[in-house]
Amino acid sequence: MKKFSLIMVLLVGISCIELNAQSQVQKSTVFGILKDNSDGLPLVGATVLMVNVKDSARSKYSVADAEGKFQLNEVEQAFYKVRISYVGYKTFTKIIRITLAETDLGLIKLEPDVASLKEVIVKGDVIAVQQLGDTTQYNALAYKTNPDASAKDLVSKMPGIVVSSEGVTANGESVEQVLLDGKRFFGQDPLLSLNTIPADIVDKIQVYDEESDQARLAGFDDGNTTKTMNVVTKEDKRNGQFGKLYAGYGENGLYKAGATLNFFDGDQRITFLGMSNNINQQNFGSEDLIGVSAGGGRGGARRGGDQTFITGTQDGITSTHSSGVNFSDELSAKTTFEGSYFFNNSINNNDALLNRETFLSNGSQFYSEEQQTTTNNTNHRLNLRLNHEINENNSLLLRSAISYQDNESSETTFGQTLNDEEEPINETSNSYNSFNNSLNFSNNLIFQHKFEKVGRTVSLDLNTKYQPTTRESLFEDLVLDSLIDYKTEEYELSTGATVTYTEPVGLTGQVAASYTFNNSVRNIETETFFLEENASAKVFSNELSNTIESVYQTHLPGINYSNNKYGNIFDVGLSYQYAALKNSNLLSLTNERSNQAFGNFLPSLLTRFQLGEEGNFFLRYAATTTVPSASQLQTVVDNSNPLFLSAGNPNLDLSYNHNLDFRLQKNYFDINATLSNRTSIKTSNNYIGNSTAIIEEDSVTAGGVVLTKGAQITSPTNFDGYWSVRNNTSYGVPISPIKNNLNLSAGLGYVNLPGLTNGVSNTAETYSADLKVGLVSNISENIDYNVYYQVAGSRVLNSLQSKTNNQYYTQTVGSTVNLIFPKGFVFRNEASYQKYTGINNSFDTKYTLWNMGLAKKFLKDDRGELELSVFDLLGQNQSFNQEVTSQYLEESQTQVLQRYFMLTFTYQLRNFR
């Protein structure tokens, strides 16, 4: 309470100072809209600078948003020189006098500066990176790509941006959504979006933290941001049709086929896509695979917690069939609509090997496993967004998302556990078949009202989430000769509301008061039956069945003060969260019930300082809580793998987290270089980790659950002492003499992870470091290559047994080459050598993956291409993974595609007007 009182005193003091200044100086709000003179599209990220004619120190700065709108608050009434600039456009300059409380500059159209663009291209002196407020803007002209490249290929050349099969990161943070000219593009699926957009239509790439819709409408930063990448298209590529069609066939029935078609007509954008192949090419994100727990089966040692349909795009051999459509348009001057639909079906076959060493107080035990899995997953996903300005003071925003997922999987598993002397302790041989489906619906409605006083607003945010899930599985244990049928019905219904009121304070300050209420009801009904021979009769198992009802309710009042002066932002806030969690086991003989209440203060701090036009420094602190899920609180035993059982813990407490984030972005325009650094620190009280008990002798519980010697039972437990620190640094600079871009990135990490094994605590300290050096060509569109070296290492120290300490590292050296020769001949080459060192080295952990292709372009403007390619020329492709926790270390290897040849025809569609 003392801290709370001190903060309130400071806020009141600041408010009084600001109000005193306000009484002496008249203020105004200046706003307007920036658009392209030729096609009327908004100029996202254009900079607006207002310099006081008499005192240049009293200047205002703003950046146009996704709709081209800009607003400068608390502008003193005086004469100003307005300067509006955007790369590739003529600078707009005008002297204005501010005399009114509100000054509308109206619609300002900037004209393309074609002459200066040509001059820049000739001189080869293109500005590669700019810092526009909190937006990092990359100029596509500074990065040369081949004519057939996608936006994914383009951004992978840019410093600080890393593209992998798992997603896109910018300065160490995951990019959560990609916009196209400020509009949503296929929901929140960055890889799908970037693969769909051709590189030759891209003008700029902008990376920034997008505020939440409620914060944007209220003009107040609530700390809820989404890492966003906005793709700005070239002005002459915004009207027309473009895309790609391809089909290929190879040996052993391997094939690929697909199409991407875009129809752009000003504000109206329509994109169609389709794909079918059986060579592991997947263009969907993780959101299309999750939602049905345990969908991938539970036979393996890794099946202990929440699971996803498929563990990763590189595991096994996958056949994929997908299609989608994206639509956006301005339905009227006040209404915009964005929507997308996506469908995919994937069939995955995987043979996997796994070795795990579990740490004990007096030694270790070793588990090995062989598993064969077949999974058929189908997903439908629909996203809708409607933005309507009722009038100049009222607006309405509606967002809806619906997805339906259906999954069938079957697996067979053989596993064996050995002791230190390599003597068998136990073994399992089982089969597992599951059928799962899930519907996920979420809806969000925001209403905002602006009062006559500038900066005074009120908004209401209503949200609903509904997710029913059905799971049925049949488990056969060939060792114990048992057959078990599991049926689970689960649903979650969540409703909430947030009211926010903002009030201007002084010349540059603002106060926001908010209240959030949320109520979440989750019901899990699990029925377990032991089947007699030939499934002629079912015997209900009370110990393995339960009906859990969990009600979680939160109240969150809060207050924030924010000050935005000359682009420098300071925001401090304090909320109080009261949470009540009611958990009931309705099927329990003792009718188990638990009621828990939590009360916590949640402070927050955010500040951003502009380092001139060359960069900025950002700091954010936030306290958060993590509430145990209904499944973590249940007591029923999950024995779907008799060697790796799990159960909940009704005594779990909520965890309290501290999150601190530093970011520095610096640009060096004299050498066209960019530097970024990010440090993230997280610590948690009552961290929810795992406690594992090793069964010492064969036994049977009162409910008939067989416990085999050496089997493990894992349950969630609260721990103190969790720490996580991560630093990422990236630097990019052009090497003009050889026309290459040098990209450097490095990372350091530390994790302190507590755990419990047989009642004995073990803390695993993991020190990690990684370095990547890349040399990317910037010579011409006919010569495109990327050479890189990457090394990553970790050292793990265990408090339980020092002899189990480990250190391991991975090395990768590789290159990609695309060369276009005269008469349309093309050579493509991609090779990488990977080596894993450390841990047990149970597998052959070094291999070379070499892909090569020869192609000939033909037809008008070389739109057609015929390519003969080979995948894995040396036949060495592998998939290998290592994992270390406070309780075990593990190596796994999965099935992959190996050498095949394929002949592919591709046609590039380009028709702009």
UniProtKB/TrEMBL annotation:
Q: Where is this region: Disordered?
A: 409-429
Bias (Polar residues) ranges = 409-418
Q: Which PROSITE patterns match?
A: PROKAR_LIPOPROTEIN (PS51257)
Pfam families registered for this protein in UniProt: CarbopepD_reg_2, OMP_b-brl_3
The leader peptide range reads 1-21
Which keywords annotate this record? Signal
Which InterPro entries does the UniProt entry name for this protein? CarboxyPept-like_regulatory, OMP_b-brl_3
Q: Does the keyword Signal apply?
A: yes
Boundaries of every Outer membrane protein beta-barrel domain copy:
449-907
For whether the record's keyword set contains Signal, the answer is: yes
- This protein is called Outer membrane protein beta-barrel domain-containing protein
Please report the organism this UniProt entry assigns to the protein.
Marivirga tractuosa (strain ATCC 23168 / DSM 4126 / NBRC 15989 / NCIMB 1408 / VKM B-1430 / H-43) (Microscilla tractuosa)
